[in-house]
User: What shape does this take?
Amino acid sequence: MALKAGRPTGRTLDHVDRMRQRLETGDEEMRLNVRMLKSEYQALKRFALEQDMSVSDVVRFALRSHMNQSNPQ
Assistant: This one.
């Protein structure tokens, strides 16, 4: 079995589904860059893998949770 160049596609179908939902709701996706220590990033990637989530999903969930706790409506 030969290795392919490029990005892993393990979560491609989930990504496509999320993009379709965003298109239907008209919600545009934006990019966020964050600087962090290498050890923090490695821990984040490990946590995401253990939770069967992408790093982006973990960050979005954590930010939403934090904002909801800080600003209950």
